[in-house]
Protein backbone atom coordinates (compact mmCIF):
# COMPACT_ATOMS: atom_id res chain seq x y z
CA UNK A 1 0.00 0.00 0.00
CA UNK A 2 1.42 3.39 -1.01
CA UNK A 3 1.98 5.80 1.87
CA UNK A 4 -0.03 9.03 1.65
CA UNK A 5 1.81 12.08 0.36
CA UNK A 6 3.28 14.19 3.14
CA UNK A 7 1.49 17.42 3.93
CA UNK A 8 3.20 20.63 2.86
CA UNK A 9 3.07 23.78 4.98
CA UNK A 10 1.11 26.45 3.07
CA UNK A 11 3.91 29.03 3.43
CA UNK A 12 6.45 26.60 1.99
CA UNK A 13 4.16 25.79 -0.93
CA UNK A 14 3.43 29.47 -1.58
CA UNK A 15 7.15 30.25 -1.68
CA UNK A 16 7.88 27.52 -4.21
CA UNK A 17 4.88 28.37 -6.41
CA UNK A 18 5.95 32.03 -6.48
CA UNK A 19 9.40 30.84 -7.55
CA UNK A 20 7.78 28.55 -10.14
CA UNK A 21 5.89 31.50 -11.61
CA UNK A 22 9.09 33.56 -11.82
CA UNK A 23 10.97 30.86 -13.71
CA UNK A 24 8.04 30.37 -16.07
CA UNK A 25 8.00 34.12 -16.69
CA UNK A 26 11.63 33.78 -17.72
CA UNK A 27 10.54 31.73 -20.71
CA UNK A 28 7.43 33.83 -21.37
CA UNK A 29 7.80 37.55 -20.62
CA UNK A 30 4.17 37.97 -21.75
CA UNK A 31 2.86 35.03 -19.70
CA UNK A 32 0.28 37.10 -17.83
CA UNK A 33 -0.97 38.60 -21.09
CA UNK A 34 -1.55 35.08 -22.43
CA UNK A 35 -3.36 34.10 -19.22
CA UNK A 36 -5.62 37.14 -19.62
CA UNK A 37 -6.42 36.33 -23.26
CA UNK A 38 -7.18 32.71 -22.36
CA UNK A 39 -9.54 33.62 -19.53
CA UNK A 40 -11.20 36.28 -21.70
CA UNK A 41 -11.90 33.54 -24.26
CA UNK A 42 -13.31 31.16 -21.63
CA UNK A 43 -15.59 33.88 -20.28
CA UNK A 44 -16.79 34.92 -23.75
CA UNK A 45 -17.26 31.39 -25.12
CA UNK A 46 -19.03 29.78 -22.17
CA UNK A 47 -21.43 32.68 -21.64
CA UNK A 48 -22.31 31.64 -18.10
CA UNK A 49 -21.09 32.65 -14.62
CA UNK A 50 -20.63 29.04 -13.50
CA UNK A 51 -18.76 27.20 -16.28
CA UNK A 52 -17.20 23.80 -15.72
CA UNK A 53 -13.59 24.05 -16.88
CA UNK A 54 -10.91 21.35 -17.12
CA UNK A 55 -7.29 22.45 -16.61
CA UNK A 56 -5.13 19.88 -18.43
CA UNK A 57 -1.61 19.48 -17.05
CA UNK A 58 -2.37 21.99 -14.31
CA UNK A 59 0.96 21.76 -12.45
CA UNK A 60 0.70 23.72 -9.18
CA UNK A 61 -2.53 25.42 -10.27
CA UNK A 62 -1.24 28.74 -11.62
CA UNK A 63 -3.94 28.91 -14.30
CA UNK A 64 -6.68 27.31 -12.18
CA UNK A 65 -6.25 29.97 -9.51
CA UNK A 66 -6.39 32.81 -12.03
CA UNK A 67 -9.53 31.36 -13.60
CA UNK A 68 -11.30 31.32 -10.25
CA UNK A 69 -10.08 34.83 -9.43
CA UNK A 70 -11.92 36.06 -12.52
CA UNK A 71 -14.83 33.59 -12.49
CA UNK A 72 -15.52 32.80 -8.82
CA UNK A 73 -18.70 30.90 -9.74
CA UNK A 74 -16.79 28.45 -11.96
CA UNK A 75 -15.86 24.88 -11.17
CA UNK A 76 -12.31 24.05 -12.23
CA UNK A 77 -11.05 20.46 -12.34
CA UNK A 78 -7.26 20.64 -12.21
CA UNK A 79 -5.70 17.53 -13.76
CA UNK A 80 -2.08 16.38 -13.52
CA UNK A 81 -0.06 13.36 -12.52
CA UNK A 82 2.95 15.09 -10.94
CA UNK A 83 2.77 14.33 -7.19
CA UNK A 84 5.00 17.23 -6.17
CA UNK A 85 3.30 19.95 -8.22
CA UNK A 86 -0.16 18.70 -7.26
CA UNK A 87 0.80 18.75 -3.58
CA UNK A 88 2.09 22.31 -3.84
CA UNK A 89 -1.17 23.42 -5.46
CA UNK A 90 -3.35 21.61 -2.94
CA UNK A 91 -1.46 23.19 -0.04
CA UNK A 92 -1.82 26.74 -1.37
CA UNK A 93 -5.43 26.40 -2.53
CA UNK A 94 -6.69 24.22 0.33
CA UNK A 95 -10.43 24.69 0.79
CA UNK A 96 -10.82 26.97 -2.22
CA UNK A 97 -14.39 26.92 -3.45
CA UNK A 98 -14.86 25.57 -6.96
CA UNK A 99 -11.46 23.89 -7.27
CA UNK A 100 -11.14 20.13 -7.54
CA UNK A 101 -7.92 18.19 -8.13
CA UNK A 102 -7.58 15.00 -10.20
CA UNK A 103 -4.44 12.86 -10.22
CA UNK A 104 -4.71 11.40 -13.73
CA UNK A 105 -2.34 10.74 -16.61
CA UNK A 106 -3.68 12.43 -19.75
CA UNK A 107 -1.77 9.95 -21.89
CA UNK A 108 -3.68 6.92 -20.59
CA UNK A 109 -6.97 5.89 -22.22
CA UNK A 110 -9.92 6.21 -19.84
CA UNK A 111 -8.78 9.30 -17.95
CA UNK A 112 -11.85 11.28 -18.99
CA UNK A 113 -14.30 8.71 -17.61
CA UNK A 114 -12.36 8.58 -14.35
CA UNK A 115 -13.15 12.27 -13.80
CA UNK A 116 -16.75 11.22 -13.01
CA UNK A 117 -18.16 14.57 -14.10
CA UNK A 118 -21.83 15.27 -13.35
CA UNK A 119 -22.17 17.21 -16.62
CA UNK A 120 -20.11 17.86 -19.73
CA UNK A 121 -17.41 20.51 -19.46
CA UNK A 122 -17.97 23.92 -21.03
CA UNK A 123 -14.27 24.46 -21.70
CA UNK A 124 -10.87 22.84 -21.32
CA UNK A 125 -7.63 24.78 -21.01
CA UNK A 126 -3.92 24.16 -20.78
CA UNK A 127 -0.78 26.29 -20.61
CA UNK A 128 2.80 25.24 -21.30
CA UNK A 129 2.05 21.61 -20.54
CA UNK A 130 0.93 19.47 -23.46
CA UNK A 131 4.15 19.82 -25.45
CA UNK A 132 5.59 17.18 -23.10
CA UNK A 133 3.22 14.61 -24.61
CA UNK A 134 4.22 12.76 -27.79
CA UNK A 135 2.17 13.05 -30.95
CA UNK A 136 0.72 9.54 -30.58
CA UNK A 137 -0.22 10.24 -26.96
CA UNK A 138 -1.84 13.53 -27.93
CA UNK A 139 -4.35 11.54 -29.98
CA UNK A 140 -5.37 9.81 -26.75
CA UNK A 141 -5.50 13.10 -24.83
CA UNK A 142 -7.62 14.92 -27.39
CA UNK A 143 -9.77 11.91 -28.21
CA UNK A 144 -10.64 11.51 -24.52
CA UNK A 145 -11.27 15.25 -24.18
CA UNK A 146 -13.85 15.16 -26.97
CA UNK A 147 -15.94 12.72 -24.91
CA UNK A 148 -16.35 15.08 -21.93
CA UNK A 149 -16.53 18.48 -23.65
CA UNK A 150 -20.05 19.62 -24.51
CA UNK A 151 -21.07 20.40 -28.11
CA UNK A 152 -19.77 23.89 -28.84
CA UNK A 153 -17.29 23.54 -25.97
CA UNK A 154 -13.97 25.34 -26.28
CA UNK A 155 -10.46 23.96 -25.93
CA UNK A 156 -7.58 26.42 -25.44
CA UNK A 157 -3.91 25.50 -25.41
CA UNK A 158 -1.44 28.26 -24.58
CA UNK A 159 2.03 27.12 -25.56
CA UNK A 160 5.03 27.75 -27.79
CA UNK A 161 4.04 25.85 -30.92
CA UNK A 162 6.29 26.31 -33.92
CA UNK A 163 5.74 26.12 -37.69
CA UNK A 164 9.26 24.78 -38.23
CA UNK A 165 7.96 21.95 -40.42
CA UNK A 166 6.03 24.20 -42.80
CA UNK A 167 7.83 27.57 -42.60
CA UNK A 168 11.40 26.98 -41.38
CA UNK A 169 12.63 30.41 -42.41
CA UNK A 170 9.92 32.19 -40.48
CA UNK A 171 10.49 29.88 -37.50
CA UNK A 172 14.17 30.83 -37.43
CA UNK A 173 13.28 34.52 -37.61
CA UNK A 174 10.78 34.08 -34.81
CA UNK A 175 13.43 32.49 -32.57
CA UNK A 176 15.73 35.42 -33.18
CA UNK A 177 13.00 37.92 -32.29
CA UNK A 178 12.30 35.99 -29.09
CA UNK A 179 15.99 36.03 -28.20
CA UNK A 180 16.22 39.78 -28.70
CA UNK A 181 13.10 40.44 -26.66
CA UNK A 182 14.38 38.28 -23.81
CA UNK A 183 17.73 40.08 -23.88
CA UNK A 184 15.90 43.39 -23.46
CA UNK A 185 13.48 42.21 -20.76
CA UNK A 186 16.14 40.41 -18.74
CA UNK A 187 19.03 42.79 -19.29
CA UNK A 188 19.66 42.79 -15.55
CA UNK A 189 19.92 39.01 -15.37
CA UNK A 190 17.82 35.99 -16.30
CA UNK A 191 15.68 34.23 -13.69
CA UNK A 192 16.39 30.60 -12.95
CA UNK A 193 15.27 28.11 -15.57
CA UNK A 194 13.09 25.01 -15.32
CA UNK A 195 15.96 22.65 -14.56
CA UNK A 196 17.42 24.99 -11.94
CA UNK A 197 14.04 25.19 -10.21
CA UNK A 198 13.85 21.41 -9.98
CA UNK A 199 17.45 21.19 -8.77
CA UNK A 200 16.70 23.77 -6.07
CA UNK A 201 13.51 22.10 -4.86
CA UNK A 202 15.45 18.86 -4.47
CA UNK A 203 17.27 20.58 -1.59
CA UNK A 204 14.04 21.39 0.31
CA UNK A 205 13.96 18.78 3.11
CA UNK A 206 10.19 18.81 3.56
CA UNK A 207 9.68 17.98 -0.12
CA UNK A 208 12.25 15.18 -0.41
CA UNK A 209 9.67 12.36 -0.35
CA UNK A 210 7.53 14.01 -3.00
CA UNK A 211 10.54 14.60 -5.22
CA UNK A 212 11.42 10.90 -4.95
CA UNK A 213 7.82 9.96 -5.74
CA UNK A 214 7.96 12.14 -8.83
CA UNK A 215 11.15 10.54 -10.13
CA UNK A 216 9.58 7.13 -9.65
CA UNK A 217 6.36 8.08 -11.44
CA UNK A 218 5.26 8.69 -15.01
CA UNK A 219 5.30 12.43 -14.28
CA UNK A 220 9.04 12.85 -14.85
CA UNK A 221 9.81 14.13 -18.34
CA UNK A 222 12.96 15.42 -19.94
CA UNK A 223 12.13 16.80 -23.36
CA UNK A 224 9.65 18.68 -25.52
CA UNK A 225 7.96 16.00 -27.59
CA UNK A 226 5.30 17.87 -29.58
CA UNK A 227 6.24 21.48 -30.24
CA UNK A 228 4.90 21.60 -33.80
CA UNK A 229 1.62 23.42 -34.30
CA UNK A 230 0.71 20.91 -37.00
CA UNK A 231 0.99 18.00 -34.54
CA UNK A 232 -1.67 19.50 -32.27
CA UNK A 233 -3.96 20.59 -35.09
CA UNK A 234 -3.81 17.14 -36.68
CA UNK A 235 -4.56 15.36 -33.38
CA UNK A 236 -7.45 17.73 -32.63
CA UNK A 237 -9.01 17.21 -36.05
CA UNK A 238 -8.64 13.46 -35.71
CA UNK A 239 -10.53 13.75 -32.40
CA UNK A 240 -13.39 15.52 -34.20
CA UNK A 241 -12.59 19.18 -33.54
CA UNK A 242 -13.48 20.68 -36.94
CA UNK A 243 -12.70 24.32 -36.10
CA UNK A 244 -9.13 25.06 -35.01
CA UNK A 245 -7.10 28.24 -35.08
CA UNK A 246 -4.93 30.70 -33.19
CA UNK A 247 -6.86 33.27 -31.12
CA UNK A 248 -3.85 35.15 -29.71
CA UNK A 249 -0.19 35.09 -30.72
CA UNK A 250 3.22 36.59 -30.21
CA UNK A 251 5.64 34.72 -32.42
CA UNK A 252 5.27 31.01 -31.71
CA UNK A 253 3.78 31.79 -28.30
CA UNK A 254 0.15 31.23 -29.19
CA UNK A 255 -3.29 30.41 -27.89
CA UNK A 256 -4.47 27.50 -30.01
CA UNK A 257 -8.24 27.13 -29.93
CA UNK A 258 -10.59 24.36 -31.03
CA UNK A 259 -14.37 24.00 -30.88
CA UNK A 260 -16.16 20.73 -30.43
CA UNK A 261 -18.96 20.44 -33.02
From TrEMBL:
Q: Which Pfam families match?
A: Methyltransf_25 (PF13649)
Annotated Methyltransferase domain residues: 53-153
- Kindly indicate whether the keyword Transferase belongs to this entry: yes
Signal peptide interval: none
> One GO MF term, please?
methyltransferase activity
Q: GO:BP terms for this protein?
A: methylation
- Transmembrane domains' residue ranges: none
The lineage's top-level taxon is Bacteria
Checking InterPro entries in the record gives:
Methyltransf_25, SAM-dependent_MTases_sf
Q: Which PANTHER family match?
A: METHYLTRANSFERASE
The protein, known as: Methyltransferase domain-containing protein
Amino acid sequence: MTAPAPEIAPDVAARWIARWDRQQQGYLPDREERFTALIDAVEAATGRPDPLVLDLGCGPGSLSGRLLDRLPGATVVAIDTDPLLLSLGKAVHAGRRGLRWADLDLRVPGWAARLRLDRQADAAVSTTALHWITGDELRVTYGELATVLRPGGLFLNGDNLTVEDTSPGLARLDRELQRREADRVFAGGRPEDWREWWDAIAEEPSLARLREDREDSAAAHHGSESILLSTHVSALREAGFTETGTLWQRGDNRLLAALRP
